[in-house]
Amino acid sequence: MRAQFVLSEIGVGLRRNLTMTFAVIVSVALSLALFGGSLLMREQVSTMKGYWYDKVNVSIFLCNKQDKETTPNCSKGEVTDAQKAEIRSELKQMSIVESVDFETSKEAFEHYQEEFADSPLAASLTADQMQESFRIKLKDPEKYKVITTAFAGRPGVQEVQDQKEVVDDLFNLLNGMNYAALGVMSLMLIVALMLIVNTVRVSAFSRRRETGIMRLVGASSFYIQMPFILEAALAGLLGAGFACVLLVGGYYFLVKNWLAGQIKVINFIGGDAVLAKLPLVLAIGLLMPALAAFFALRKYLKV
């Protein structure tokens, strides 16, 4: 009998505040979709960092004959065999270095021709214009500055170049987008909470006579509050359900069926990562409105 009464009161409350309930559902859906999206974005950035940082090299480009007139670091002329041997020896003694590969000017020229075959410059370059280089793989890519400090500006070294600086710009952009999504999500969450509180207050005010009678006949505060809390929880759960649909649909249509085919160089997260976030989204969608309703009712159900 009590369960039937609570369920009937939930139905009455939802019908009386249909427009505000719909607004709560939409707000919760959008805010939780952004929340889930920001979690997935963070996981995607972490996956990309692990993938790209593993491929990052530090390159020490050596002076050639042409660099003497154009590059101040190479004013003393082409790098000597003794200087190359010294650099190789020092690199192999460094504990942060995992491996060292030497690329000749001929190999550099062949790689350039393969990668930039359509470039107008490819036909005008010759092998002796390309720099020899050491390609260093580090155990920890974050420590690239150690190599830069040790070898930049040395005789025979034209430039020390770290590929991590290139990919860091991309990761900074992605992190900025993630923070922006979190900011919008926080704003939407505040709006959703305000709507939930106002909906509960309006519902409690419209049924103040019934709740007053229930209090006079000895009903407990929890029993009186239960229909209002369940109304808010149901609206939040519906919003969370829509958020889950948006997340799964966004992954399937945007990532799997479009971006994965357009951008081959990025290792996108799988569908299992999306599914793993859905229980958290549903739990927040259920608990957040219920708690907001509970605290909002403490004042408005006093008789």
From TrEMBL:
Keywords of the record: Cell cycle, Cell division, Cell membrane, Membrane, Transmembrane, Transmembrane helix
ABC3 transporter permease C-terminal domain: residues covered:
184-302
Q: How does it sit in the membrane?
A: Multi-pass membrane protein
Q: Where in the cell is it found?
A: Cell membrane
A Pfam family for this UniProt protein?
A: FtsX_ECD
Coarsely, its chief localization is membrane
InterPro entries from the UniProt entry: ABC3_permease_C, FtsX, FtsX_actino, FtsX_ECD
Family to which the UniProt record says this protein belongs: Belongs to the ABC-4 integral membrane protein family. FtsX subfamily.
What interactions and quaternary structure are annotated? Forms a membrane-associated complex with FtsE.
Question: Briefly, what is this protein's role?
Answer: Part of the ABC transporter FtsEX involved in cellular division.
- Protein name per UniProt: Cell division protein FtsX
Which gene specifies this protein's sequence? ftsX
